[in-house]
Input
Amino acid sequence: MLFNSLDFALFLPAVFGLYWFILNRNLKGQNILLLVASYIFYGWWDYRFLSLIFISTVIDYLVGLQLARTTQAHLRKYLLGISLLANLGMLGFFKYFDFFLLNFVEAFTLLGMQIEAAPLRFILPVGISFYTFQTLSYTLDIYKGKLQPTRDFIAFAGYVSFFPQLVAGPIERAAQLLPQFERARVFDHAKATDGLKQILWGLFKKVVIADNCAIFADLFFDPQTPYEGSALLLGAFFFTFQIYGDFSGYSDMAIGTARLFGFDLMQNFAFPYFSRDVAEFWRRWHISLSTWFRDYLYIPLGGSRGGRMKQIRNTFAIFLVSGFWHGANWTFIIWGGLHALYFLPLLLLQRNRKYLHIVAKGRIFPSFVELGQILLTFLLVMLAWIFFRAESLPHALMYIQHMFSHELLSFPVIPGQMGALAMTLLLIVWFILIEWRGRGSLYAIQHWGKNRPQLYRWSVYIFLIFMIGMYMKTSETPFIYFQF
Amino acid sequence: MKKFLLHILQFGLLLTIAYPLLLLLWGAVFPQFLKPNLLFVQGGTGHMHTRMEEVKHTGEVDILFLGSSHAYRGFDTRLFEAEGYRVFNLGSSSQSPLQTQVLLNRYLNQLHPKHVIYEVYPGAMELDGVESAVDVISNDTLDTYAWNMLWDIPHIKVANTFLYVWLLDLWGGRKTYQEAPYKPEEKDTYISGGYVQKKAIPYPYPYLPKRNWGVHTDQLRAFEAILSDLEARGISVTLVYAPITSTAYQSYLNQEVYDKIFHQLGDFQNFNEKLPLVDSLHFYDAHHLNQEGVEIFNRALLDSLKKSALYPRSCLEQ
Output
């Protein structure tokens, strides 16, 4: 089920009504309802893959209980191994099997040996990378002694499959989300209202910004059609906003939906395109994944301890693994590697933690230096997105080569679509202004009209709904991150 | 919780009032490229406004034409009138069966045709019907049939246009529009009876990639319902696949699938397989005949129909 679908528009109020009217103050009942609703939500897409979530849930629940019962180091390692093998095994099998097989065959072909092997071409279960990491954090935290296991299977199953963030995050830690399943939730008017606002803003980002940008990104990234350099630059620009609108829009809707049910999820995006360097960008982009890799990969590898070379190695490791997490394609690995290269000078000069607060805090405009830093970071990130979006490595390289041709300075002409192009650019400008104005908040419109009368605030929301009605793309397009 | 629900209700009421007002403002102030989900176009590309005005004052006919632009640009009413028939062409741009149903519900009893020539082509079955729905809504009356069509095509463009037209009609905002019979930009001339004649323009031979026709099950269902309804009323029907360029025709790989469906549903004639038309001589674009092409096609159609038992006798023959 997609957030931007009519199905979800009916599903959400129905679950909300049952949750607060029928099962209010009945924690067990509410948790069972959330679990059932989550399985329906996921099964709407393909019920067969519910079994994978269920298997992950059962294994990690049992492993968690056993880990708490034993103090023997080798047995604990063995139990952790079961959890890692089961979860990463399923992820690896569905997501990476064909990639390794094809590269294996290609490597042997290069050595002059022919191997016959056909890829399995499995359908990738939606959200498998997200819920696998979420459930892994539970066993890893128990193993490290940071968390006590739960005995409440329903609460744990609810934590693993919680429908607002099941398929595209934020990737929640058990220590953060699981206790919320275990304590009574009381309806909070302010929280629910805030949740609705965040859903509205997320929907705007998805159906207006991302879906309109997608039309031109798809057009210019079509490898069959040659475009001039300026059009390809625009294509990269549109994809940069498409992926931000799409993914951060999903996160906003997920966080907002969770708030309607009394849950707090972590902030996943913090205005990343206003970053002054790549290190800041990574503190603001897909925060739940970055921190997951920091806690469960970078720090166990030694983190910043053990000398500069080890730090560089560990940094490259998390960027490359992060790229590979996104997809079984060399384009994602190069995308991760490119970000590691961007990060390297900051690391060597020890400037990677220079910008910890939002730019131009307390001011309306940034300084010229800040503006230059923002633009440079944006361009670097945009260049890397070309690898992320391209269908293959040769396609990405060809795209960049053509983009930097002498036609880069020509005026892009797209017959029959110039009006739509102008409209999309205007929408992006409007969007940037709103994001800039709200950059100190959790999401851009959180404090819109905070000290103004209610009628003013409502007028703003109505205008936003009208903008959605006037500019949304009407086909139900899936979110990009569903494929990861 | 009570406060929350009360606020939702109040906000909903305010939205119900404010959204249409914003729609009116947007519709009046901004150019079309800045209002992509509001497609209010009186007249449109096919003289729909004039056709809808004329049909309201048309009496009984012998032959009624239905279909897409292939119909209103392909069946020259003058050629049929010269044979002694009273005819009307109720075609409209991208008309899909869902819009055909609306138009028939409105005008079939009034026109009371003896025979229907229904232009069919697989493209009409794969359309979502949005383009034609906003054309019908913009240029014809808003009634329960239009309202039902809105539910059949739950699309924001249809909903916005419907709401906008309803608001305009509240103070007669559409009544002042006058459509010129000749549109120099499109080189189109409206001919009484619903036909639109295009002044000959050279055909540019575009490249058309190979593809399959798709299918929209709602359209197929509506199409079958139309045929059943006409049969129940005792109106004979000929399904006609009007000529398109051979380049376009051959670019679709699954024509025979639809040919089979149309054959099963009634008396079907595919003129793409019958007429030796030349793309550069008889068409002005990939899908539409020029006047010379229309005349060849219509004469062939008349000859073919005269041999058919379904064909009504003209007043000249009577």
Observations:
- The interface with chain B takes residues 6, 20-21, 24, 187, 189, 192-193, 419-420, 422-423, 426, 458-459, 461-463, 465-466, 469-472, 474 of chain A (CB under 8 Å).
- Residues 344 and 426 of chain A are 36 Å apart (CA to CA).
- Residues 73-110 of chain A form the longest helix (38 residues).
